[in-house]
Specification:
By secondary structure, the chain is of the alpha/beta class. The chain has 13 helices and six strands. The chain has a single domain, classed as P-loop containing nucleotide triphosphate hydrolases (Rossmann fold, 3-Layer(aba) Sandwich). The structure holds 3'-phosphate-adenosine-5'-phosphate sulfate (PPS).
Amino acid sequence: MSSEDYFAYKGILFPTQGINEETLSYVENDFQVRDDDIFNVVYPKSGTNWMSEILGLIRNDGDPSLVRNVPVFERSPWIETDQGLETALKNPPPRQISSHLPIQLFPKSFLCSKAKVIYTVRNPRDVLVSHYYFSKMLKVWKEFGTLEELLQEFLSGNVPSGSWFDHVKGWLQMKDRDNVFVMTYEELQQDLRGSVKRICHFLGKELNDPQIDSVVENASFQKMKDNKMSNLTMIEEAYMDHKKGKFMRKGISGDWKNHLTVAQSELFDRVYQENMQGVNMTFPWD
Ligand code: PPS
């Protein structure tokens, strides 16, 4: 696979398979957001499927039957893909919808709706490492021989969904709206129970203690790794080479320390500082 397999839509790269310009334009300009929609918005490799699982469990009062029986791409369709859009349009309300879109390509109708967005951010160094391994198995992503090669592309934003920095800065501009909630992958790691409670509060959903316990238990890395409906082993070989890795890879914070050299880490820090100047938020990795 080569970089020609990506196409640019309004300056942002997307894989050529499963996503096309018409769908992106429809999603941006014509998709009608409903007030009861719940959007799971995440830069790739930052915890999309984890949040899908958490939201699916919360909606079902902690009962795991939904997440154990319905594939993640049906219960929380990825709206900018052709298939995901079709599913989102036919799912009954209240809908749960996932997206990797930067704010400028997100459905315009969201801006005048009461729909809720949960935006999850992860340490970009761990996003980079997760991307590197995933690109070996996901056939629609460009594969990189070395982490160094991906590092250059990642820092320049030459990757699907564009620059991590622009994506995060764009969505953070929305963070003071009542219907937008920002969460980090690291907070989920450090305190899943507390995070679930905060998400419930944001959604206006009251769960009792045993229900929250069940959300926490069933959204654990091990439970999701064993859940065929969530671990992406159901994705056909045409898209994913399951012999080359596992979607549920490590599920930890700080794996970048095992992969980046001192020079790479210094370069990352420099580009990070340059790009994140003036961002009014402290992240767990800062
Ligand atoms: S994708 O392909 O962009 O939708 O990937 P995404 O779901 O955003 O992120 C995949 C990474 O999230 C990890 N993950 C989890 N970590 C901890 N606990 C749970 N339950 C969990 N579920 C998914 C997954 O392992 C990927 O991270 P890495 O670092 O590659 O392991």
